[in-house]
Amino acid sequence: MERTSAQLNELEITYQYGVSLDSLGLDNSELVRSDFIFVFTFILKISRQTNSNPIFEYLIFYRYQKSQFIRPHLCSRYKYLTLSHLFRVKIQTLITSALIVSSLYLIWLNCARNLERRYASKYAVVTGATGGVGQEIVAEMLKTMHVIAVDRDEQLLTDLVLKHKSSKNLVLPFVFDFTNKLSTFGPKFDSFLRQYNVDKLDVGMCFSNAGIGEFKQFEASSFEAKARFMQVNFSSHLAISDYFCKLFLTRTHAKSALIVTSSLITGTCGRFFALYHTSKTMLSALAASLYSEYASKGIDVLAVHPSSIANTKFMKGEGMKTLDSFASKYISHIGNLWISVTPKQIVAQMLSRVGKLNQTFVGFATVLNAIQGALLGRNLNAFLWSKCTFLDKLFTKNQ
Predict the structure, then answer these.
(1) In terms of domains, do 74 and 159 share one?
(2) Are 310 and 261 contacting, i.e. CB atoms less than 8 angstroms apart?
(3) Domain end: 68, 92, 109, which one?
(4) Could you count the other beta carbons within 10 Å of the beta carbon of residue 72?
(5) Which end of the chain is more exposed for a tag (fewer CB within 10 A), N or C?
(6) 56, 88, 109 — which closes off a domain?
(7) pLDDT in tens, 332-345
(8) Are 148 and 172 in contact (CB under 8 A)?
(9) pLDDT one-digit tens code per residue, 257-304
(10) Exposure string (b/e) for 321-338, b if CB count within 10 Å is 16 or more?
């Protein structure tokens, strides 16, 4: 029995590693020897001839241990000699595996999705449709479906319709100002759908993209102005979410998607962005909660966090013009910095991540900001910003 086992092991070594006992100057009878010096020499010869690493030596040793060719009390001696090598190889293997898995994960994340098939949608709703990101969403979605463009500026909506009049799909303009009473959105939108003979169940995607910026000290605005700002930057998304979550629950034949535009600023509570930070943090939290509640019911919810955006009118909005000339000039040029991302990059990430993630971060600066926010936490983050008093002198004016 011992000789048969030895022969099998010889065949196994010869087949898998191209090493014959004859080439090592050994024969089958020597395989049944159990002295430590022989075993060590035998394995060392195999290792050198095959240019193998310590993990190979250990595996060969382990096989002979299991085959009882080596006495148990001798096994621990060789195992001790190779333990450090084995640990090093295991660490290298883990790092390599992690890199491979991470690469495959990123490839999967960036793969385009067939949105038309996944959501069986004929119409996509886009709020804030005339801004930089909004226009890019409209242009991209028109490739596969009609778009209902929502904005407060009727003239800009008309220009948007004319811009895409040659498209195979239609842009339907819906004028709504989110500074007005939000409870009227639902009835007005229902009336709009009836006017254009649009079946509600054909609306399978909604991009809640409306928002304005503000860069000022907290005490520099009235309560009414603060309430108006929060209505546009958070309550409008709440109204959109309320309407479309209820609508999407009736679409039992296919999945639906609700995508909201948040911001890099959720990761840090910096000075002069108190309301903006608050509204975007609330929006990201709302998206996470809706995802946890409705993902199992066929509604994909995604919050997108871009850094500063290039080629948009966001930084030139009224809320960004409350500073002195130097600060205003600096803020208006943030979109031109190397850390900025383009509307095209943002929309590409929206459409590739929806249905895969709940929160996504666009741009190198956003990812770093999210990491530091998670590591430092709110207490330390706020403490560090509280020490940046030089910003008060740099960015404030006589208000």
Answers:
(1) no
(2) no
(3) 109
(4) 9
(5) N
(6) 109
(7) 555 556 678 889 99
(8) yes
(9) 999 999 988 888 777 888 999 999 999 999 999 999 999 999 999 999
(10) ebbeeebbeebeebbeee
